[in-house]
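Re: iron/sulfur cluster structure - here you go.
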Amino acid sequence: MDKNQIAWNEKVSAGIVENLRRRRMEGSYAASAAQARDEILSMIPAGATVYRCASMTTTGIGLWDTLADLPGVKVIDHYRPGLSPQQSMEQRRLGMLADVMIASSNAITLDGRLVNLDAVGNRVAAMTFGPKKVILVVGMNKVAPDLDSAMARVKHYAATVNALRAGYSIPCAETGLCSDCGSPQRICNVWSIIEGQMAISEGRIHVKLVGENLGY
Ligand code: SF4
């Protein structure tokens, strides 16, 4: 990454962190994925239960391999190989009671709003309520100027690329474009826009912005 991109990341992330604070959420910036991973690991209390939500970002930075080795940490992972669909749904329910949830956000606006779109809804449900701490790892490629552009990014880029990754038989996996389908495998069913936290939950959500292109 050249020095101008680095400078942009630093300037823009500082503004977002300040706007998150105004919304009673925490934010911080790491210049690299490796730095972000180490800082997140240091935030996990010994013996915590950690809910792993679907995220190319957190997988890509190698978080889960290291996290599983932390003392006493138990990872709740509904994508664990060998789970039946019923067992996978049960893990999603268990995740709602975890000490910590770790995921990404599909987009973040310059004024600090978190915009997400889920297939089942467990990820946005846990972001909203349940786990005592929510850590969201967000590459600076997911920054959008405003709510409209954030929602467009999520619907017309993140969702369709995720459809390609999942290999589902849905129109966007064929064309790369959304046709607002009614498929039973539709991956975009539940919108969430987090505008902030009440005082009782102040600091519950921590957004770790990362100065790299991560995830979709
Ligand atoms: S509505 Fe259908 S076509 Fe559009 S992104 Fe969602 S799954 Fe793909």
